[in-house]
Amino acid sequence: MRHLISPLDFSAEEINQLLDLATDIKENREKYSEVCHGKKLATLFYEPSTRTRLSFEAAMLNLGGSVLGFSSADSSSASKGESVADTIRIISCYADICAMRHPKEGAPLVASLHSGIPVINAGDGGHHHPTQTLTDLLTIRSLKGKLNNLTIGLCGDLKFGRTVHSLINALVRYANISFVLIAPKELALPDYIRENVLVANNIPFREVESMEEVMGELDVLYMTRVQKERFFNEQDYVRLKDVYILDKDKMQNAKEDMIILHPLPRVNEISVEIDKDPRAAYFKQAQFGVYARMALILTLLNIKVDEANAER
User: Fold this and answer.
1) Pick from 193, 248, 182, 189: nearest CA to 221
2) How many C-beta atoms lie closer than 10 Å to residue 121's C-beta?
3) pLDDT attached to residue 230
4) How far is CA 286 from CA 131, 138, 181, 292, in A?
């Protein structure tokens, strides 16, 4: 039994195989429509989510399975003081696989140590978001045709942005990747990511505060929102929330084939006028997330589509 807690839980080769599977699912939806018949996915979301929770549920339903779970800590026995370890022991009696989001770093890892079913980390605090990373990799590979020889711009909240942390960890395993880190000093990439991941792997990177000065260099621009829920005081959030807003003026120097990604939800960091730009890929990215999660569910449940269809 395997879990996905960190983007490094799968090797680069395994990630590529999973992306191949997700691509086949995208192109052959009908072939996969009943392969998880009789299987149940539990979604344990201790903090709010729209895209991640619903895309997991859509993924399982698309595979012919069913879903159960809760969408906030208040609607679970956590409100009565039940531990994560006890919750997952119980859920293991009801479901075949589990996706967990939790505000505390390490909670999905704790769950995996006590679980009788595969556990998928659907986001733990400011730590990791590996299924968003699979989504991002699938989107980049599908739209750019590769995961190497790319300059990736990461903009906004690089301090608390778990999607950014996970994506960096994943992309450093591909050849000729470089990063441009665009953030105010207060939201700069944490030292442990900078030193233990980028510097330790000899990955080229620059840290800048101006989006305009680097726009023409980028193959991918990954925007993030400034996350109000990660701040300890309202004043700091208000001061930083509008630091970067992507609009038509800032796009003038961007490459014609650059793509714009965003894990969503968007607040105001991408102007709605950008939605019509052919380089805007964040809504496609959300759709790719369903295919990536379908592929992950099949992989962790060790379901082979041809065998499953033959049995049916």
Assistant:
1) 182
2) 28
3) 47
4) 11, 11, 23, 10
Q: Which residues are catalytic?
A: 51-52, 80, 101, 129
Which tokens is 24 given? 């086949």
The Cα–Cα gap between 30 and 66 comes to: 17
Cross-strand bridge partners of residue 98: 42, 119
Residues 6+ apart with CB under 8 A from 307: none
Determine the Cα–Cα distance for residues 47 and 104; give it in Å rounded to an integer.
10
CA angle 24, 30, 33 (to 5 degrees): 100
Q: Against a cut of 0.85, is the pTM above it? A: yes
What tokens appear for 12 in the block? 């680069």
Q: What is the DSSP string of 280-302?
A: B-HHHHHHHHHHHHHHHHHHHTT
Residue 270 in tokens: 């991408």
Residue-wise over 32-68: b if at least 16 C-beta within 10 A, else e? bebbbeebbbbbbbbbebebbbbbbbbbbbbbbbbbe
Look at the alpha carbons of 144, 150, 155, 161 in this order and tell me if their dihedral is positive or negative. Answer: positive
Q: Could you read off the pLDDT of 6-65 as tens digits, one per residue?
A: 988 999 999 999 999 999 999 999 999 999 999 999 999 998 788 899 999 999 999 999
Q: What is the CA radius of gyration of the chain?
A: 19
Say which DSSP state 41 is in: E
User: What is the pLDDT averaged over residues 81-101?
Assistant: 94
pLDDT digits (tens, 9 = 90+) for 252-279: 999 999 999 999 888 889 999 999 999 9
Q: 3-state SS of the chain: helix, strand, coil percent to 5?
A: 45, 15, 35
Sequence-ordered list of residues with C-beta below 8 angstroms from that of 233, at least 6 positions apart, any chain: none
| Apex 261 CA angle, 272 and 9, nearest 5 | 150
The set of residues, in sequence order, having a beta carbon less than 8 Å from that of 211 and lying 6+ positions away, is: 153, 155, 182, 244, 246, 250
